[in-house]
Amino acid sequence: MHARDPDPAPAATADLTAPGVPLERLAGRWEPGVWVGAARRVFGPVSEVVGDSRGSVIVENHPPHHLIALWRPKRDYEPFLRRWPSIVNLVGTDEKSLLGEMFKLIPSGARLWMSRGDIDWALMAEIVMVSERGLAPYQTRELEGFVRVDRARTLAAIARGYTGDENRYRSFVDTVGEDPDERPDPQDR
Q1: Which strand ranges, in their side-by-side order, compose the sheet holding 65-71?
Q2: Strand positions, DSSP E, 8-145
Q3: Peptide bond into 45 cis (omega under 30)
Q4: Using one digit for the tens of pLDDT, what is the confidence trace for 30-85?
Q5: Which is it for strands 35-43 and 112-114: parallel, antiparallel or unpaired?
Q6: For residue 104, how many C-alpha atoms fall within 13 Å in the half-sphere facing its CB?
Q7: What are the tens digits of pLDDT across the range 133-148?
Q8: Three-state DSSP state, 160
Q9: In this predicted structure, what is the pLDDT of residue 144?
Q10: 3-state secondary structure of 145
C-alpha cells in the first residue's frame, strides 16, 4: 500500500455566495451547451523583499494565485474534455472571487459547469508562462516551481499505478493506444 502525497494546491472550491456569481448561469452538472471550467490554487500568498529606486528595501505581499481554465461547450461526439482549453489565465485573487473572474471570460448569458476531473495543471501553467507577457518575476518563479512539483507528482503516480505488476502495466499500455511499430504495413495487404 502506498501513502498518497498530500496535495498542497487542491482544486479550488469557489464560493457560490460571493458577489458577482450569477447562480442561474451555474450548471449543477454537465449538459450540452455549457462551458466547462476548472480552477486550482497554484501558489501564495507570497511575500518578497524588493528594492526601490532610492535604495530602500520594502516587502511586497501578493495574494494567492489560481489557474483558471475554460473550455468552450463540448461537441456531442466529444466524451472527454479537450487537452487544450479555450482560455487559461493566472488570477491573483481569493477563492471567493474565482467564479466571478470566470464569468467575465465567457460570453454574456453563457452557462458554466465546474469540472473536478483530471486536468493537466502543469500544462495549464506552461501555457500561461508562454502566453502571458506581463508576468512578474515572482509569478514566473512560482509557476516554474509548481510545474516541477506537479510533474514529479505525476511521475510518482505512474510509478505507483503502472509498474511492478503486469496487470497494472497492461492497463497503462491500453490507455496509450496502438503501438505504431505493431501496425500492419499497408503494402502487406
Answers
A1: 87-92, 65-71, 35-43, 112-114
A2: 35-43, 46-51, 57-62, 65-71, 87-92, 112-114
A3: yes
A4: 888 999 999 999 999 999 888 888 888 888 899 999 999 999 998 877 778 889 99
A5: parallel
A6: 11
A7: 999 999 999 999 999 9
A8: helix
A9: 98
A10: helix
Q: CA angle, corner 80, sides to 22 and 5, nearest 5?
A: 85
State the pLDDT at residue 116.
86
65 has which bridge partners? 43, 92
DSSP codes, 105-130:
HS-TT--EEE--S---HHHHHHHHHH
Residues near 154 by beta carbon (within 8 Å), at least 6 away in sequence: 122
pTM score: 0.74
Q: Which residues pair with 67 in a beta bridge?
A: 40, 90
User: Can you read off the three cell numbers belonging to residue 124?
Assistant: 495549464
**How far apart are the C-alpha atoms of 102 and 87, rounded to whole Å?**
10
CB neighbour class for 182 (10 Å; exposed up to 12, middle 13-18, buried from 19): exposed
| AA identity, residue 130 | V
- The neighbouring-strand residues paired with 62 are 46
Residue 11: DSSP 8-state: B
Cα separations in angstroms, 18 against 23, 43, 95, 100: 10, 21, 9, 8
